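Researcher: Before we compare anything, I want clean individual predictions. No alignment, no superposition, just each chain on its own. First chain goes here; please echo the sequence and then give the structure tokens.
Model: Echoing the first chain and its structure:
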Amino acid sequence: MVSPSGDRRSRVGRGSRPVKRGSGRSLLEFLLDPASYAHRPRSIHLVQTHASLVVLASPFVFKIKKPVDFGFLNFSTLAKRHAACLTEVELNRRLTSGVYLGVVAIVRDGGRLRFAKTGERSRVVEYAVQMRRLSSRYFLDHRLRRRAVGRREIMRIVAFLARFYRAQRPTKEVSQWGTVAHLRFNTDENFTQAERHAGGTISRESLAAIRAYTNGFLRRHGKFFTRRVREGWIRDCHGDLHAEHIHITPRAVNIYDCIEFNDRIRYGDVASDVAFLAMDLDFEGRADLASEFVAKMARALRDDDLSRLMDFYKCYRAFVRGKVESLHSVAAQAPAVERLAAADRARRYFQLALRYATIGSAPAALVVMGGTGSGKSRIAQALASEFGCDVFSSDRIRKALAGRPLYERTPSKERAGLYNASMTARTYGALLDHALGAVRRGEGVVLDATFGNRVHRRAFRRALSAAGANAIFVEAHAPAAVVRKRLARREHERREVSDARLGDYAELTRRYEGPVELPRSQRIRVSTTATPPATLAHLLKQLAGLRLASQAVT
């Protein structure tokens, strides 16, 4: 969606592809001509989304719906677009003041287009929602990037939303969308519509893991969702509550652009609406504000169960944003630079959805461990790619600390000094520093090291716990015959960081201490003998299962 400021998406000039509505001059040519407007704006800018054309003609904004049908959104006929415009104005006036001015018609008069006079309905070729243009500096996403959002702003948003939610009374028509059957309808639709983007903005392995987590949560907690319906938490909400839709000045809060095109997407648990903004705060790198917002909303609404649903609904909301951005990334009318930016945003939203589905909202370190040749480094790289986070390798750190060339095997006479207890302690200390730095920034991180000593594992668990983060250990393993073949191949590989070779296998295996002391809630064991995609898919589903087991909702 696009803010009335027009600053969220790339601006498009006269070189854009014309959008035809009938014969003669194109609608786009008409919209981009300052002479088309009674107030004669000094400049015109066009912003496109997957579903709308938004014309910035200060001091106004005109939003025209594209004739598209995505299933969940259908603007394929003029009548449907007109109805959606009227509904958009009506619904958005609930959360705004003086922003939504009304619906205006565009008519064809002879061979030219013009805005219709009041009450004129003949020869209409299109409708537009007319809005007052708002100052971009006060939109929440802009303020977040300027670090101009703190507890005071969060509390103002909480108070504003709490009044809105309390005013929306649950009805039978609305409440049905809180049942598991209807939730499943929405989530299944999302997964089906996202499948066309699998292998592009989302991997097939991540899609499968998010689906497994979502379906598992719905299956496990049916009674809990039924109770939410019974207690009246399903309301007519906003439905698209993310940062760029919130405008907060020193004097007023306006929240615009709610879902008007599909009631069932707007109808939902208040927790789902809250999760949308909490997810977007996470997306903007402000997990601290997300936690503050959720805690204050729960208190304002007196909803003791709200926080228990956050990761489930944040996963759902991040996935929806990934899908929407993916649609825009393949929109034929959007400029190439805009499509690329949308694809990047889509990947980041899908990565966030995967995080909620597998490791949760809190910062976490995925510690990929295992004996030499077990395949841990390949797993670590694959996980870092899926989550969009950094990966730190003990092999790389050790050689960097010693000043050794990365891809050159250390001579035998120097290995004793490189792998003694003191150097190992320095290596794992640096690895821990990297991990703590990431989680303190609210980020996830992947660590790649043997971790074959329980002392090192204990130190990492304690330090990460003290930093408010979790450690999940992923132990890679493979049969001895497979490991020996891998180690033998290293003799001929030029870009190999590890010094370990086949001759070291027996001694390194003898020293390795399996992670038997780790609780099952922090440990996964994965075979690396299958293809890399199959191994990754299995691992991500295991992580989703571990996450489900940790979410006890009653």
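Researcher: Okay. Second chain, same rules.
Model: Second chain and its structure:
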Amino acid sequence: MADQESNRRRPAAGRRLDRRVVLKATAAFGAMSLLGGAVQSRARAQNPGETIAGTWVEAESGGFTAAAAGEAQAFQTDFGFYAVAPHWGAEAGPGASVELSLSADGTSWSEPIQVYEAVEDAGGPESGARRFGRLVATEGASFIRYRPLDANGTLTSLPSLAFTYIDASGGPSIDDVYAAALTPSLAPPPIISRAAWGANESYRYDAQGNEIWPPEYQTVEHVIIHHTDTANFQDPLIAMRSIYHYHAVTRGWGDIGYNYLVDFLGNVYEGRVGGENVVGGHSYQYAYGSSGIGTIGRFSFEPETPEAQAGLVWISAWVGRDLDPFGQKPFQDIPSLPTICAHRDVNNTTCPGDVLYGDLPTIREYVNAVLSGGVDPAPDPDFLPGDIVETIVADGNLREGPGLAFGVRVRMQLGEVLTITDGPTTNDGYTWYAVQGGTLSGWAATIIFRKRTTNPPPPPPSGQFGVGNVVSVNTDSLNLRSAPGTSAGVIATMPFGTRGTVAGGPQSANGYAWYQLSTAYGTGWSAGSFLILADSPPPPPPPPPPSGGFAVGDTASVNTDSLNLRSGPGLGQGVIARMPFGTQLSITQAGVAADGYTWYGVSSTQYGSGWSAGELLGPAGSGNTGIQVGDTVQVIDGSLNVRAAPSTSAAIQNVMPDGTRLSVVGGPAQADGYTWYQVSSASYGTGWSAASFLQEV
């Protein structure tokens, strides 16, 4: 049950990777969480047209006038945008950054984002003597608020500071080009061409008509996996065109750097012009003799979707079809480089993120299975574009994007008829499809709809259960209501396996046969479609919340990798924030039992107030893992950053591989939800690392 609330359990030493063959995520959250609220929206491609971009130059607007007061400075762009990046003069030196907040109306602002120099793109020569920040995606903004910072995080002025903002919503939409590579084989994947995704080929030429970056060719010996470090669920076509403009025009490369790109739906896109064996611009000199595959998104803490992984497998198998996926060989100045590797294996970078990097062994196994004629690494989709479906529950959410964090556009009626337009993609434990109705469109989880048949669905069963029968819940979670019907109040939400005795019914309402049940959660009504006969009496009622858990006023800390802060006590409540391991919390309200957990009201200086499951909390300071100055520790769960200060926004000084041994020389310090220690190594220097990824030796 703990995994229903915790997004990812805290790993032990030696992370176990066992995502084999069955790639679709299971329904880890309670089914009723589909009825919860959401906080984000998803940009959709608009009418066909050209990508437009603008540049705001600080010096032309009076300079950074807020510097003396230590405040952020804001300005309005001359059109709405979906991506933005700062850039400044190279004379500023390394380590500088720009703190950004974005707004659609100039009143409500996003949380600050610290943007460092985008050294990971590794493309061609930059446009002028400038340093370019990474590209930041937004769901639509017209205002930018910023603070330039030096390498120590102190407010400063950056020479020639400017911001390029991009609206790439004009052009083809994902519905126009959808061709997901979900069932890898020895055939070429359905690669979406540059013309199909809307590449403006004029970007490749200078004012005199000369090609800025003429193609060169070298036989592919390695496949190098990257991430684009942009938003995970941004509209893929907007992301593609934004990245292309930023690489080709803003940074002056003349083309996009990656050979191919893969989105969260499993679509594979043609990147660098020139076809197979063309040299891209993705890993400096290591781009010669390799194919660079950019996975759209960031994967330091979040996994790629199973569909994205299937796309990665297919394109990796195709470009490396003459190579041994488990092989290693010398490559330029590297004595032994895996055939399928990551950007961090050839350059000093964190790309493609710790989670995706940890999945490379699985990707190699699947590529080998494809090349050997083995099992396909992804199941056939349940639905195809054009399929007609209908909702099977009342009040099912139609969301703006494929996940529980996206805003709810509308709650649909039972029997709503919809057409599948694209998908699938897997997120938050559910498989999602984009759907279109008569007056509505959005994303829905498969748990709330089914294929529509030519005949109407059969009427609710009559007499399926009798009074006195013992039944059990046969779905992830089921509402116990005050009366028979979906509009009746919810008494409790019962988890899978909850037993009860039938006390009345059936009564028909909203397309279901309802039964009155006597359960440990009380007496009420539930839909018979989600009940089965049980073969033994119901268990005793669950114990009350433990009196020795937490008391109001106690201090606790998150004791799992990521824990939801919810708006109320229960899995059906909206998610306010996801708090990382070690986040310090104050207990503000006593424990309440719901959905198999004991919920406590908690407060965090960084994430606000809400409710969290007490079973996934530990005593204050439990996030420090008992490490002390003088201990010897080792890196676990993949590569780990060494930072200049105890903060996720501090500059990265080095990247240590899994298993690196270190001496603890300082700490602990609390910041950004982590406990930090100063560590020292002869090979990697001295700096700060998060204790969550260290283990005493």
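Researcher: What stands out in the second chain?
Model: Residues 236-250 form the longest helix (15 residues). Additionally, The first strand starts at residue 6 and ends at 8.
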